[in-house]
Amino acid sequence: MPNNYKNAKQDLTTTNLTTLYTCPNATTGLVKSILVSEDSGNADTITVSITDSESSPATFSLFKVKAVGANTTVELLTQPLVVQENEILKVQAATADRLHVVASILEVS
Description:
mainly beta; 4-stranded antiparallel β-sheet
């Protein structure tokens, strides 16, 4: 199979833990970018974690309460993030209806 470029998007309309991306079977995801945009005019925070399906599942924090300024966009990654098959990237906003998240991913099978 060829490499597949895709993006994963979420409008965080609640404060629930929300799945942003699940890496498919027999695939490695290279997350090149995670952009977080605040569009309500109020600063907020986001938490990003990854769930390892092989550890029963265990959740690991990537960004814990990362600040996002009012009406700004923040790039969370400075280097690509490797996501292995069946691992799940999850995001959670501190306040509903303020944050949008877009991840740019290269899937390699």
